Amino acid sequence: MDNKPTFPATKPQTLGILGAGVWGRTLGQLVSQNGHRVEYWSRSGDRSLEEVVTGANILLSAVSMKGVASVLSQVKAIGLGTDTIIVTATKGLDPQTTCTAAQLWQRAFRDRPVVVLAGPNLSKEIQQGLPAATVVASNDESAASLVQEVFSSSNFRVYTNPDPLGVELGGTLKNVMAIASGVCDGLQLGTNAKAALLTRGLTEIIRIGTHWGAQMETFYGLSGLGDLLATCNSPLSRNYQVGYQLAQGKTLAEILPDLEGTAEGVNTTQVLIQRAKTLEISVPISYQVHQLLEGQITPKDAVEALMLRDIKPE
Ligand SMILES: NC(=O)C1=CN([C@@H]2O[C@H](COP(=O)(O)OP(=O)(O)OC[C@H]3O[C@@H](n4cnc5c(N)ncnc54)[C@H](O)[C@@H]3O)[C@@H](O)[C@H]2O)C=CC1
Ligand SMILES: O=C(CO)COP(=O)(O)O
Questions:
Q1: Number of structural domains, the chain?
Q2: Domain that includes residue 263, residue range
Q3: Which of 169, 227, 242 should be mutated for ligand 2, with most atoms under 8 A from CB?
Q4: Is residue 149 located within the same domain as residue 223?
Q5: Structure ipTM
Q6: Is 301 in the same domain as 177?
Q7: I need a surface site. Which of 54, 70, 88, 239 has the fewest CB within 10 A?
């Protein structure tokens, strides 16, 4: 007997996608292929936000972090239907509040389900139809299940998870490590150094994330360790590219204009350091990335500072 599931598993839905950048378009392509209706809104497009928001039963934001607060206040002014599910695919931290994107959406729409979508999802590979997996996480199980059905296909395997904060922080904080990893490869520090960086990087992510209220085991899943491995090992990652080019001696001002899309790790590092200082959490790798992005040290100084820290138990 053939036990293969058939996709799509749910009746056609209407998705409004806010932010028609690289990731918004890639996610739109996945759901269109599953037979769902997709309407895009972007600040430079010709569709009105009101039209896209009011027509959607699933509203997905793939706006980069710097645009989230302003977009959600515009959505709030328009209002959402009583059954609308909000999905956020942004991986960043808000400089004003240090909140994640989902926390901002949930504060603005307290009575609506908010679902976080995050995983090892380099958009270029997904656009080519290569297999990938992701996680949809929410406090609202039925909303997460519907979003899982909407996105699942033979190329895109979707898991649900009940820890939205952990899933979102895994995807967000690994961008800081991806910059460090690009530096490591750019300086040709070797495989041992890379393994040490990723392992200690994960420890740092878990220290911050559990202090924030996330579950430790979430960080060993696809959106934590999975996304860390993908992003820190791929030249397709914009964050990795930033680190790699810093190691070649370029400045941030020279690197950022030529990147295809947003490297959220640059802003995330700043916000993370602000939060870690206030809460007195030790984040040695993120601190060196911060100093490097600020132009205070060279990539070689950053490596030396990490290697010469006080010796201690693992
Ligand atoms: N590209 C990828 O492989 C993946 C990206 N992401 C995350 O998705 C988010 C978007 O990434 P990309 O699409 O790659 O970046 P992008 O730079 O291609 O797109 C960003 C989108 O946000 C919009 N935006 C920025 N500021 C805005 C503002 N003030 N008001 C309204 N809209 C604004 C832009 O117009 C654009 O549509 C980031 O948080 C990124 O970390 C997550 C997973 C994979
Ligand atoms: O989050 C991503 C892959 O999961 C994309 O990484 P970059 O934003 O560094 O390209």
A1: 2
A2: 168-307
A3: 227
A4: no
A5: 0.98
A6: yes
A7: 70
Catalytic residue among 4, 11, 66, 174: 174
Entry pTM: 0.97
- Look at residue 176 and tell me if it is in a domain: yes
Tell me if 136 is assigned to some domain: yes
**Residue 135 belongs to domain with CATH number:** 3.40.50.720
Domain contains 245? yes
The string of pLDDT tens digits covering residues 6-56 is 665 689 999 999 999 999 999 999 999 999 999 999 999 999 999 999 999
**192 and 267 co-located in one domain:** yes
List the CATH number of the domain containing 212.
1.10.1040.10
Please indicate if the annotation marks 41 as binding a ligand: no
Q: Do 76 and 189 sit in the same domain of this protein?
A: no
First to last CA, the chain: 51
What local confidence, expressed as pLDDT, does residue 142 receive? Answer: 97
Could you tell me if 158 and 172 lie in one domain? no
- Among residues 200, 249, 198, 250, the alpha carbon closest in space to that of 227 is found at 198
Between CA 229 and CA 234 the distance in angstroms is 8
Identify the residue whose C-alpha is closest to ligand 2 atom 7.
Answer: 237
Q: Which pLDDT tens digit goes with each residue over 177-199? A: 999 999 999 999 999 999 999 99
For the CA of 44, the closest atom of ligand 1 is 35
Strand partners, 117: 136
265 lines ligand 1 (CB under 6 A): no
Measured CA to CA, the distance from residue 307 to residue 22 in angstroms comes to 37
